Inverse folding.
């Protein structure tokens, strides 16, 4: 994992709020990003692997910011690059079983 | 359980959508109602037991409708009364472990 660069602001684990997490994930684009993040270690947000080519880059950045501010994802800035990963351990500690149940739930 | 009256429109179990469920629960009032519903068999929505005396009745009705339309709660109309209950079995069948993890998660 890339540990260089600067970690963008995010809530402490104990401050991650369930309602904010659910609000963040109650959107199809952000649920998609959540599943993508969960499938790998970390992502460069400019990556086409995000599968959101149909959205403007600023829209994707907006959704990623909401996920970060809700405590769902960490973002590390290295120069102009952004590396994002799911805060799986933090979420599991705060809300046991939640991430697993979401990932096991059927997609639309 | 009261089985009289008319069941208000609600999605079939197979049509309950995860993102809509999370969107519905991503609101503090609706998360409160979810926890109240989960604590009992069914509720008359005029009941003070809902713990939402500070909200206008139409606001509470609005939130209850969103929960019903998302597939989280069933509402039975008997005359002017409304009896609401959590669709626990339907949610457990559709999203195994989700309700349990939400109920076990810390409240703000």
């Amino acid at each position: 994992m890339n540990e260089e660069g600067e970690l963008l602001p995010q809530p402490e684990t104990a401050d991650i709020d369930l309602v904010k997490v659910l609000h963040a994930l109650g959107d199809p684009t952000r649920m998609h990003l959540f599943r993508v993040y969960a499938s790998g270690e970390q992502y460069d947000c400019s990556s086409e692997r995000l599968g959101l080519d149909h959205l403007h880059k600023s829209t994707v950045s907006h959704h990623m910011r909401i996920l970060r501010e809700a405590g769902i994802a960490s973002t590390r800035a290295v120069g102009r690059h952004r590396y994002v990963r799911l805060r799986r351990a933090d979420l599991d500690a705060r809300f046991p079983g939640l991430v697993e149940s979401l990932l096991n739930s059927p997609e639309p």
